[in-house]
Design brief:
about 100 residues, mainly alpha, 434 Repressor (Amino-terminal Domain), 2 domains, about 0% strand
């Protein structure tokens, strides 16, 4: 399956929006705290704009959430097991991003 960049950024935006709303904060409030214009922040939440890693980091700090909660989780394909990745949440995403098969 090919990587769907547009769907990826839409899901990132949705995860950010959910985290913001759980905190009861406005777009303006969060945008001010991370140092970007509200319109730019709105574009990030809607998936219309790619989000730089430093902004994801700032959002994690400002919203008090782990960085991995602001990104979709990849879904494994063949020959991967949860036991091989004991600290991961593989298979919980919705995009169907495939990891390469591990050769034994």
């Amino acid at each position: 399956m090919a990587f769907n960049r547009e769907a990826f950024y839409k899901e990132v935006g949705l995860l950010i929006q959910v985290a913001r709303k759980r905190q009861g904060r406005t777009q303006e409030d969060v945008a001010t705290d991370i140092g970007i214009p509200r319109a730019t922040y709105a574009n990030l939440e809607s998936g219309r704009q790619r989000i730089p890693l430093d902004i994801v980091w700032k959002l994690g700090v400002v919203l008090g959430v782990p960085l991995d909660s602001l990104a979709p989780k990849p879904m494994p394909t063949t020959n991967l097991s949860v036991e091989e990745f004991p600290h991961s949440t593989l298979g919980t995403g919705t995009l169907g991003i495939s990891l390469p098969t591990r050769q034994k």
